[in-house]
């Protein structure tokens, strides 16, 4: 269960460690940022990581069924040909333990762990203008001062645990999927209630149902999901990947979502209903996110989207035998893929089991948690275990839970009180020499993450290298550049159907009180890469650089 202990205060007599760059977080992003800054620029760098190992999201999310929805050969670092030749994934979609093994392998291969302090949670960071240094404090009271401060804290790392009255009185066990116990949870013979039907809940339900006495899924918003069609990888495929890494890299860097497949250049209205159905049927058989790539207009034209949405709803009704359950599962209130589309392994089939039931908490909301279970309007569900698959305070949450203060004591919380404002998702006006890897305003979560991360980490390292070459000490995003970029982020989102999903975490709508702002840049990774390259090539236009 979550640790709610108070952070310790820094002891003023503690000697600060002096660094060129401090990176927060040791997932994909922090590890590669460390490598870029230490091995390519020769900076003194330290990574501070709250967990006791590398892995970031894959360190914390150990819930049953946790698996990536990017294909393994794309969910890899591409910066090292040697690494690409050495590592072999076992399945089409890698499971959490395999990804964690991979990240440990990378950390060991590049000797990264010697520059990472584990079990070290950053509580605050303050910019000292006179010294042009950041002062960083950890929960244990350690102090660091650094010229560059870079957050690599992930977009989905701050657990969203709903404030349901009575949770403290629950006599059973409860867990959030993003803070899963390392020793696992034994569901054998237990009555389990799971709240949440996003990508996580959709992955967890079939696995929990295998051992639980009964699983009750509490659904607020019904969701689309496509079969992953996961399978072990053949020797031939693994060999093909090794022989085609150059082409795969080129493709992932040129597609909007950073995946190694292109969106088909045809409209859903270019074909007959029969042809369209056959295309969807084939994509369903192939499985995974390629379904979204079947037509170019699925995310921009509601009538095109309706054809995909209706195909999936019909699939749900066909798979789920109980018509009432099928109706609840297929009563989806948003366009297909306007929320991040989950991919699953037998999610809808799970509702055909005798030990699984669905509760519609949109119609009958949860009123309280009692000592013995969950009470909704009109019904009681006795439970031994509650699983919160309720997602995250996404993108801004991990940044704002630290006390970050820029120039003149400006708190990031204050600067972002109406929603995040960042130039390119990389820098915030008023916060010199502070970079956010895959921050709000960058494509990040709309992209295959390692592709987005490599681009950001390299851009930041190149920027710091440029500053060093030119004797520059400080870089800060201009406020007007951030404002213009926020306008572009909004325009990119509004050109799609994405904002139509009213309960989406892309909009911050899943966290009560959070400003409703569309956070990721929806203009595509390839376009974004060009914009960032153009900014760098034009003397970092939009930033103020000074000696
Ligand atoms: P999510 O998509 O935000 O889903 C959270 C679920 O909990 C939703 O069904 C939500 O309902 C429900 N919920 C939240 N607060 C609630 C409340 N107070 N009462 C009742 N229900 C509540 O979170 P997630 O499933 O953890 O996924 C987050 C993201 O992580 C994904 O979109 C994806 O980007 C990533 N992820 C990826 C993978 C993968 O690679 N395969 C796996 C897991 C997660 P509403 O929809 O009504 O808000």
Can you describe what's shown?
The structure is a single chain. With 547 residues, the chain is an alpha/beta fold. It has a domain at 17-54 and 112-158 and 394-546: FAD/NAD(P)-binding domain (3-Layer(bba) Sandwich). The protein is built from 16 helices and 20 strands. The strands form five sheets. Strands 1, 2, 3, 4, 5, 6, 17 and 18 form an eight-stranded mixed sheet that branches. A five-stranded parallel sheet has the order 7-16-8-9-12. A three-stranded antiparallel sheet has the order 13-14-15, with no helix packed on it. Helix 1 runs parallel beside helix 14 (449-469), helix 9 runs antiparallel to helix 10 and helix 14 (449-469) packs parallel to helix 16. The longest helix is centred in the C-terminal third of the chain and has 21 residues, at 449-469. It is globular, with a radius of gyration of 23 Å. Residues 1-8 have low confidence and may be disordered.
> Quaternary arrangement of the chains shown?
single chain
Mean pLDDT: 96
The dominant shape is globular
**How would you sum up the major sheet?**
8 strands, mixed
- How many individual β-strands? 20
Strand content of the residues, in percent? 15-25%
Rg over CA atoms? 23 Å
Q: How would the blueprint of this fold be written?
A:
Blueprint: E1 17-24, H1 28-40, E2 45-48, H2 57-60, H3 81-86, H4 96-109, E3 116-117, E4 122-128, E5 133-138, E6 143-151, E7 173-176, E8 191-195, H5 199-211, E9 214-219, E10 226-227, H6 235-243, H7 245-254, H8 273-286, H9 302-319, H10 323-330, E11 343-344, H11 347-350, E12 356-360, E13 366-370, E14 373-376, E15 379-382, E16 385-388, H12 397-400, E17 403-405, H13 412-415, E18 434-436, H14 449-469, E19 474-477, H15 479-494, H16 525-537, E20 543-546
Parallel strand pairs: 1-2, 1-6, 2-3, 4-17, 6-18, 7-16, 8-9, 8-16, 9-12, 10-11
Antiparallel strand pairs: 4-5, 5-6, 13-14, 14-15, 19-20
NADP nicotinamide-adenine-dinucleotide phosphate binds next to helix 5.
């Amino acid at each position: 269960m979550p640790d709610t202990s108070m952070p310790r205060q820094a002891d003023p007599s503690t000697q600060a460690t002096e660094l060129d760059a401090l990176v927060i977080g040791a997932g994909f992003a922090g590890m590669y940022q460390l490598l870029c800054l230490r091995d390519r620029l020769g900076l003194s760098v330290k990574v501070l990581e709250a967990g006791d190992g590398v892995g970031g999201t894959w360190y914390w999310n150990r819930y049953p069924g946790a698996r990536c929805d990017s294909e393994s050969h794309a969910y890899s670092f591409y910066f090292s040909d040697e690494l690409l030749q050495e590592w072999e994934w076992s399945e089409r979609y890698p499971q959490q333990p395999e990804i964690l093994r991979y990240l440990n392998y990378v950390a060991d291969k590049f000797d990264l762990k010697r520059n990472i302090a584990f079990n070290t949670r950053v509580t605050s960071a303050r910019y000292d203008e006179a010294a042009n240094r950041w002062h960083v404090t950890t929960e244990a009271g350690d102090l660091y001062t650094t010229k560059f401060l870079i957050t690599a804290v992930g977009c989905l790392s701050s657990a969203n645990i709903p404030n349901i009255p009575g949770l403290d009185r629950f006599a059973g066990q409860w867990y959030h999927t993003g803070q899963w116990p390392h020793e696992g949870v034994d569901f054998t013979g237990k009555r389990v209630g799971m709240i949440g039907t996003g990508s996580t809940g959709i992955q967890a339900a079939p696995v929990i149902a295998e051992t639980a006495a009964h699983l009750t899924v509490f659904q607020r918003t019904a969701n689309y999901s496509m079969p992953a069609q996961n399978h072990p990888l053949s020797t031939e495929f693994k060999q093909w990947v090794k022989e085609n890494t150059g082409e795969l890299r080129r493709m992932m860097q040129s597609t909007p979502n950073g995946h190694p497949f292109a969106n088909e250049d045809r409209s859903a209205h270019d074909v007959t209903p029969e042809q369209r159905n056959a295309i969807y049927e084939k994509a369903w058989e192939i499985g995974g996110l390629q379904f979204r790539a079947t037509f170019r207009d699925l995310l921009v034209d509601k009538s095109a989207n309706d054809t995909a949405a209706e195909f999936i709803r019909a699939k749900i009704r066909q798979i789920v035998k109980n018509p009432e359950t099928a109706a609840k599962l297929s009563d989806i209130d948003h366009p297909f893929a306007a929320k991040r589309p989950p991919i699953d392994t037998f999610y809808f089939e799970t509702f055909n089991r005798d030990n699984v039931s669905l509760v519609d908490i949109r119609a009958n909301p949860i009123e309280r948690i009692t000592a013995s279970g969950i009470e909704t309007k009109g019904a009681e569900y006795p439970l031994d275990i509650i699983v919160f698959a309720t997602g995250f305070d996404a993108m801004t949450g991990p940044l704002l839970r630290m006390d970050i203060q820029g120039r003149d004591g400006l708190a990031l919380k204050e600067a972002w009180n109406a929603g995040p404002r960042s130039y390119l998702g990389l820098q915030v006006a008023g916060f010199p020499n502070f970079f956010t890897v895959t921050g709000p305003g960058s494509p990040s979560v709309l992209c295959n993450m390692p592709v987005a991360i490599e681009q950001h980490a390299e851009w930041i390292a190149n920027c710091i290298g440029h500053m060093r070459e030119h004797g520059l000490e400080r870089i800060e995003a201009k406020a007007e550049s951030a404002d213009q970029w926020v306008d572009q982020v909004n325009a990119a989102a509004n050109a799609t159907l994405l904002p139509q999903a009213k309960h989406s975490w892309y909009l911050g709508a899943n966290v009560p009180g959070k400003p409703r702002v569309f956070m990721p840049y929806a203009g595509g990774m390839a376009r974004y890469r060009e914009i960032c390259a153009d900014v760098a090539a034009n003397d970092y236009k939009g930033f103020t650089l000074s000696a």
